[in-house]
Amino acid sequence: MPDxxxxxxxxxxxxxxxxxxxxxxxxxxxxxAAAAALIFRxxxxxKGGSGFLGLHRLERLANAVEDLxxxxxxxxxxxxxxxxxxLFAAAGAMRAILAVLASCGSEPPGDDDALIASLxxxxxxxxxxxxxxxxxAAEAPMRPVGDAWKRLHRLAEALALELGKPIELVTExxxxxxxxxxxxxxxxxxxxxxxxxxxHGLEMPSERRALGKRAAGTIRLTAMAAGERAVLTVADDxxxxxxxxxxxxxxxxxxxxxxxxxxxxxxxxxxxxxxPGFSSASRVTRTSGxxxxxxxxxxxxxxxxxxxxxxxxxxxxxxxxxxxPRGGRERRRARPRHHPGDGGPANAExxxxxxxxxxxx
Length: 361
Hints:
Layout: H1 3-28, H2 33-52, H3 56-75, H4 81-104, H5 113-128, E1 142-144, H6 149-163, E2 167-172, E3 177-179, H7 180-201, H8 205-210, E4 217-226, E5 229-236, H9 243-252, H10 258-263, H11 266-271, H12 293-303, E6 307-313, E7 317-325, E8 356-360
Parallel strand pairs: 2-4
Antiparallel strand pairs: 1-3, 4-5, 5-7, 6-7, 6-8
Helix pairs in contact: 1-2, 1-4, 1-6, 1-7, 2-3, 3-4, 3-5, 4-5, 4-6, 6-7, 7-12
């Protein structure tokens, strides 16, 4: 495969991940001008590159998306649900084409006429009715968590290509209902956790085979209702948390003396992964390694009256469990938060059998 094509594919797949994140931002705030502008730039760049390389299916799709975004921008109506659905559909089609392009070196046969026609109808609808979209508040207050599964499947596909790891994403309990205000932020939290599992949890295929595992790693998302609370779990069958690397980073970052770190229990060590800016990764990638995702997830779930727990079994994988009110934000009294290593309590639960758990509340 020519270097220029390989470079285009890598950049395009990274752009698809950023596009999904930007559309998610529009779902939270339909008038987010910065997110809309980012999508336009990403699609415009994709259109230019695909046109230069003669990748006509990608070019046509990108052009149709660009027309839709232009119509939305001119009318000032914001990103109504049909527009967001169209963007996700187009992104999925482009990602599928890129996957074949990466493995075969050429676009798959076929056309995208039906999807392009649908995007054109959406664009025409914006032009014909330049009025504000109906208020989102009029929609049903509860949504099934399964509405978020599709975007996570697309994310897993993109991560598999970017990381060179076959990934199977399994979802259960998609009919669990949660409040819309919770749902909008839950998507971002789940994306952080899926990225973390894919990049840090799952081993490379050769390593997995040497350990007697399937080459393809599994990330399992489950949801269930427990009374007035929702319980969501993101689990992988990878290597588990790297406790010795966490211990070394605690010392290197000056969060504890070497003697104290050596005496820490697994529970106390695990609590550090939720600390702002803390990362045990040896390198920063486009996917993760900046020490941001887990802190963001914890901050969000605590802000709505919930908690996050992590359980890890060396060689078998790690599991993140989120528990939060299904009916929306819970009023809570403000109280000081202590991080491990800052002189306050680490706030970790005792171990449960062979699984080591740490809970941040």
